[in-house]
Amino acid sequence: HGDCSDTVTVGEVDTHALKLIQVAQECIQAGIEYCRPGRSLTGLGKTIHQHAKSNDCAVVPCFLGHGIGDFFHGPPDIYHSLNNYPGVMKPGMVFTIEPCISEGDRRVRTLEDGWTAVTLDNSRTAQVEHTVVITEKGAEILTE
After folding, report:
1. How far, CA to CA in Å, does 126 sit from each of 71, 73, 108, 143?
2. pTM
3. In a 3-state reduction of DSSP, which class is residue 50?
């Protein structure tokens, strides 16, 4: 199994949208660079949260990364915000990092279709996702 996503522009977009997408890309990159054996899973969320916040953005905490193994969505849960999820990274672990970054509110509601989520203030979001494997030296991206 593998999992990946990206936010792309269609047509002309304003500079704020481009900045939001850039911050989302920077957040996932910071998260990937954080990863290595012995590092806490909580530290991954803190790293991404701090980068988003330093760019006047917020992490939407209800969208998580996940482990990938014999089935698609399994443990560990990968939070991209401040959290206290237990565990440390070990060589061979495979999981997704997929922060959803908002230019406004971090809270969301689901629309009547049961699928579409929007921020409470209708601010825009951007999401980037990769599947990574923890190696002896760090993390290798499997979905580039």
Report:
1. 26, 21, 14, 18
2. 0.93
3. helix
